[in-house]
Amino acid sequence: MALVRILGIDPGLRHTGWGVIEADGSRLSFVAAGAIHSRTGGALAERLRELHDGLCAVIAAHRPDETAVEETFVNRDPQSTLKLGHARGIALVVPALAGLEVHEYAANLVKKTVVGAGHAEKAQIAMMVKVLLPRSDADSADAADALAVAICHAQHRGAKKRAAALGA
Description:
Radius of gyration: 15 Å
């Protein structure tokens, strides 16, 4: 497999984490990570625009080849779930509009791939991301989670490509 640059996104309305890695076969290397923050209390449309603009800037700066987005889990509060769904929509559409492949992964699969357990805590995820990407400097749980999504995609992308080829 050739070198591929992967953008991982952990969507959230207040904080959307992002992480960029390069995968060369099974070898992974850290490129960048961070979080996009929307202003709390602002109008929903304005907050979504801030996430849109932030993701556009990340894509322009780091030029990924593929994108992986964590799927949304359902909260107990339907209003919070709906708002998270809006943020996730931005996380899906911005890379798609940039012409990137967009792949989605369940949170439990991300955790199982990176930590080995589907119900890992955020601290465990951050620790394993640091082990797998020793040069990473994720400064928030959101950025570490986004790197975990990118790592998950790097580990599963080969199987996804083979499955797609068989289905064609």
